[in-house]
Protein 1
Amino acid sequence: MADSKLDSLLDRFAKQDRLALARLITRVENRSAEVSTVMERIYARTGHAYIIGVTGAPGAGKSTLVNQLVSRYRAQNKLVAVLAIDPSSPFSGGAVLGDRVRMTDHYRDPGVYIRSLSSRGHHGGLSRAAREIVKLLDAFGYDIVIIETVGVGQTELSVMDLADSTVVVTVPEGGDGVQVMKAGLNEIADLFVVNKADRDGADRVKAELELSVHLRPPVGWRPLVLMTQASNDIGVDALVVAIVRHADFQKEHHDPARDRERRTREFLEVLTSELEERTERALKNGAGGADQVLGEVREGRLNPYSAARRIIEDHAAISRLLDEGGPKSVRQ
Amino acid sequence: MADSKLDSLLDRFAKQDRLALARLITRVENRSAEVSTVMERIYARTGHAYIIGVTGAPGAGKSTLVNQLVSRYRAQNKLVAVLAIDPSSPFSGGAVLGDRVRMTDHYRDPGVYIRSLSSRGHHGGLSRAAREIVKLLDAFGYDIVIIETVGVGQTELSVMDLADSTVVVTVPEGGDGVQVMKAGLNEIADLFVVNKADRDGADRVKAELELSVHLRPPVGWRPLVLMTQASNDIGVDALVVAIVRHADFQKEHHDPARDRERRTREFLEVLTSELEERTERALKNGAGGADQVLGEVREGRLNPYSAARRIIEDHAAISRLLDEGGPKSVRQ
């Protein structure tokens, strides 16, 4: 993409053009070489949105709950974006689409933006793409950004790092699978929701979750456990209030050292994935600097570890690869 | 670790010292800086083991099935290693430990090596660690390496790329969650197993899986669908035969172009994660070259994208970081 085209897209983005937003998100999804340039240009405008993560097992009613949250925030006249990380596939397409369809209430509301990000084919890159899309939504002007994921797997969990408040949704009848997932989820939850609370066992699950909260070291925020029936719109107001309480707690206990830590961690992620993406791009485009090494690896004459060492320790070779994989503007 | 200590560990590894194997695996798990050196040294001895991946939802009976497979291969006098990727946590500890305990049959057998790799705290690095541990087990001399994962999440799925044959285990009563998981699993399966086949619905699940196989494009291997009752030791022999059939099929249809592709992909993974790990290590140890940039990021005066660009495009800075994060021997 020529720089002028990117400039015009960014201009339209700054003027609240939703189509420009959608196009930039698509570029992030496709990992185009301009992503870092885009992020550099919009970064100063980020930091205003409140990010809410909603996660839990499939079938816990996350989408219905998110739908209700969107209505509440719209009633407060806030602009809301939803990023749904879908474990999408032709096989499960039905179920997942079903969830999305429930969001149709809001599709026509210009104050709501809904986007799905497929969790497939991203490998380690999913959390980077999610983080950058959240930054775009934030910079665009959304007050609330809700990230919805199915709480399975490390990658999906790591997406929840982005949230200011993480809501973990469970249901009374959770079996083995839910137990296992609670494992990872337990530690990231700021708020627990027992949804479908009219079903048998809701009190027991609530008590279990409260116990797990009380077993935590008594420092910092203590996760609240709420009961909802999202499909009957019961308990949603209390959830909104709980999110405000958590946000207030964080403001009151604001710790500049944690900000510095968070910034350092983000930088490390950006730097390492930028190294990774530039190298991958350069090698896929047949990078000159690494031709010979690559050929030997391909024929099985050189093991990948010695090959990597040979390239990394040859400063000219690695610099050339990193330049070749960079945004076009760099090479102009 | 001094080079001489590493040398002695590698010597003992070459002499089939299981303690040396265990120590090297621990180093891989902890991402010590010597990992690439270890891999360079053992790489030539890899390529002999047959790698079997076993995956499926929690509670599908994977561990029992793996236990039975181990017995069969031991009866053939083969050396067997099992790498179990656990979604371990204090919370789910019980269930997971329960599974492991069933493997006690084999704990005292010197021809069987069992190791768990926690899926926590690895982020994108889990598949690299798993791949390297499999290489260690292969180089050590195991004939069969079985990787067992809970089939959830992208990272856990990507581990299955390592397998020569991937066995996806399902159960008759799989609900929503299983459906969703089948999604990703469907595409990676070489063999489907409907375990607990004495339960209601087994025939229906078998028919569904067979349909999904027939909907695939008619090229290459067509996944077989088998029925087992692992806990009654029924159907396991047929599974062993099916794995042999799949191995034979791959031998007969051996495609050198795919080997070259696989080698290129592995090299790309090693190169990019080596870049990532060296940079991370250097920055965590307070790398001199990036001090000023890191300081500005930490205080929020520089956005992470501009900071990354500044370091990557300064060839001296990035080279210095990569050297500082490399194995100690490099700097001697």
Note: Chain A is about 55% helix and 15% strand.
Protein 2
Amino acid sequence: MLLCDIGNTSYHFYDGRADYREPAETFEPESLKETVYYICVNPQVKARLDPLANWVDLAGYVDRGNYYDTMGIDRIMACEAVDEGVIVDAGSAITVDVVRGGRFEGGYIVPGLGALSEAYRRVSPRLDYSFDFELHLDKMPKNSRDAVTYGAVGLLARDVRSCGLPVCLTGGDAPKLLPLFPGARHDPLLLFAGMRKIIQKARPC
Amino acid sequence: MLLCDIGNTSYHFYDGRADYREPAETFEPESLKETVYYICVNPQVKARLDPLANWVDLAGYVDRGNYYDTMGIDRIMACEAVDEGVIVDAGSAITVDVVRGGRFEGGYIVPGLGALSEAYRRVSPRLDYSFDFELHLDKMPKNSRDAVTYGAVGLLARDVRSCGLPVCLTGGDAPKLLPLFPGARHDPLLLFAGMRKIIQKARPC
């Protein structure tokens, strides 16, 4: 079974053994003949997939009653994969979602690491620091790099930690963020676990 | 006595009775003949002011031992004005600084509201929401506008509130942020209060 999570920049495939990515701009979905179960937050790609009979959009098989209308299908799939925890999905945006007792409790969205770096750079070249993900969050920063890192990702990390729930990191930038979340689980394939649960529940074929 | 706080975009003057702004790009500092006590975080403007004898840079009169080397002089002046509290200075960047017992304890920097909006927009047009500053911070967001607002300014507001200190808001975007900080003081002239304290201590003339 081939699964695919399509974001703003890439197709992320998982064939049950290995995962790999193809760039959203150049990959040709018509080149695949087998059935692909997918989710997609990229409207251009979605329009291209709609006419292809072997690409099955899992968005239609989710019980949306647990979520809100405009919530991204990628966030929903991550929540479906977890019974209790905080999910931090660090891609072009960083989403933080809380699930308790199998129910979505709410979540929020921060620009991704690249967009945050760019935002500081645009405010002033004097704020153009690389983030220090080894930052200690228990004391207030007393140098510029720490001050920028704390504002960019420290606030988020402190907020996530304060939930007192297991933390699961996923998304392309998860490895960078890991040191800010001691004890967190890193699961690059989290969304695929949610997709498999949905397929098992719905048996869309 | 004429005071001036020069930022990335404007000269902010205060003559002891009223404050007014002039755009950094077009204002001609040579046009003023009286003594102007100033602070400046804009290197282009600083270079232009250096040869002008009637423009007195207050940066040289601050005891920097309480702060760190690369800390902006605007943040230092705000801290000088306060004995106990959290200062939120919302301009092209938002700086948050903590002062306890007259001592700077540390602080951090977040991109300003304009830069944050731009960052969300660049990540995806689907995240292009105006922030809702009436957001309730005691529950997790369950709609997209709240999810974006919480990520942009809610985390910061929750962190500031958790300090348990008086909160003082200043900077051009302070009026927008005020609803997120119940009980906070809004002082658009806070930096000038710090500048006056420095002048009184140092008597630079």
Note: Chain B is about 30% helix and 25% strand.
